[in-house]
Amino acid sequence: MGKFFKRALLALFIWVLLYQLWIFLHICWWVNHNPESTAFMDTRLATMQEKNPDAKLKHKWVPYARISANLKRAVIVSEDSKFVTHQGFDWEGIQYAYEKNLKKGKVVAGGSTISQQLAKNLFLSTRRTPWRKLEEAIITVMLEQMMSKRRILEIYLNVIEWGDGVFGAEAAARHYYGTGAANLGAEQSAKLAAMIPNPRYYDAHRGARGLNRKTGIILARMPLAQLP
Q1: Other C-beta atoms within 10 Å of 223: how many?
Q2: Is the dihedral of CA 23, 86, 185, 207 positive or negative?
Q3: Which of 82, 98, 192, 226 has CA atoms 20 to 30 A from the CA of 55?
Q4: Domain spans in the chain, listed from the N-terminal domain onward
Q5: Contact 119/80 with Cβ under 8 angstroms?
Q6: Which among 198, 221, 203 is positioned nearest to 58, based on CA atoms?
Q7: Helix (H) or strand (E) holding 166
Q8: Residue 58: which H helix or E strand, with range?
């Protein structure tokens, strides 16, 4: 029994090591090549196709230079104000979110940085488990070590969900405003950034009071954003 347990443990260790290597090689490739899809995009597409086999995602990659600086600023102040300066984790933000959630007795705030969100979207399932949080942290460290902040933000803006089947800044700009990501104005960008925490809901409820309130807050803070 002891020998079998040791072999099983060794096999598990090798599998974990190979999985980390697989992730690392993908990240190395994506330093200079654009990901065609993400784990989260694949999950959403599969869910959509259960209802409609012909369903497709709205997604078009655009380079960093063709994404409005307004949107970059809005997303940073909304999702990760210390993005340029931290090493992947905002420890003060995590502590604040923990205390707020503890006080409310449920999850009402998240402390995830843009790098952490990207790690989750690229590779991980939507299930919340201690293992997933650990893997998210490992991938975040890999992203921060292998990629520049500019590249992390470029990929993030191109792959995050912005509506029902809508992914990336270009698709979002065309879906909501009929224009390209390069042409987004300040208020349009602030509203898109405000939608990120719950994009499918806000896609269906674009005039929600909370969305408009958050848009105003983001708009006021945008001049403070530091861009990579």
Answers
A1: 9
A2: positive
A3: 192
A4: 1-33, 34-224
A5: no
A6: 203
A7: strand 166-167
A8: strand 58-59
- In DSSP terms, 163 is beta-bridged to 166
Length reported for the chain: 228
Q: What is the pTM of this model?
A: 0.91
Query: Residue 188 and residue 198: Cα distance in Å, rounded?
Result: 17
- CATH class of the region 34-224: mainly alpha
Compute, in degrees rounded to 10, the torsion defined by CA atoms 226, 158, 207, 210. Answer: -50
Helix pair 114-123, 149-159: axis angle to 10 deg:
50
C-alpha angle 194-200-206 in degrees, rounded to nearest 5? 55
What is the chain's pLDDT, residue by residue, as a tens digit (228 residues)?
577 777 888 888 889 899 999 999 999 999 999 999 999 999 999 999 999 999 999 999 999 999 999 999 999 999 999 999 998 888 776 676 556 656 555 444 456 899 999 999 999 876 676 788 889 999 999 999 999 999 999 999 999 999 999 999 999 999 999 999 999 999 999 999 999 999 999 999 999 999 999 999 999 999 999 999
**How buried is residue 119: exposed, middle or buried, by Cβ count under 10 Å (0-12/13-18/19+)?**
buried
Distance of CA 152 to the CA centre of its chain: 10
Q: Which residues are 85's β-sheet partners?
A: none
CB 150 within 8 A of CB 64: yes
Strands 166-167 and 58-59 come out as parallel
CA distance 122 to 219: 28
